[in-house]
Amino acid sequence: MDGKKWYLSRTVWVNLIAFAALLLKSEAGIALTSEETAGILVVLNLILRMITKQPLKY
Q: What local confidence, expressed as pLDDT, does residue 53 receive?
């Protein structure tokens, strides 16, 4: 089964950006709670899961 490279995955990039945003949240003055941040990430991951067609190739 063919897959795509990990660095072409929108899901991987969304999660990496979310991780960076979490680390920089206090420095950027963002006032989201941890629950709000987690909720946004869950919704984004569900959307990406629905449109994902290919597995990752490591």
A: 87
The total of structural domains in the chain comes to 1
DSSP string, 1-58: ---EEGGG-HHHHHHHHHHHHHHHHHHHT----HHHHHHHHHHHHHHHHHH--S-EE-
- What is the sign, positive or negative, of the torsion defined by CA atoms of 10, 15, 16, 22? positive
- Chunked mean pLDDT (size 10), the chain, 58 residues: 87 91 80 86 93 87
17: domain range? 4-57
Amino acid 51 reads I
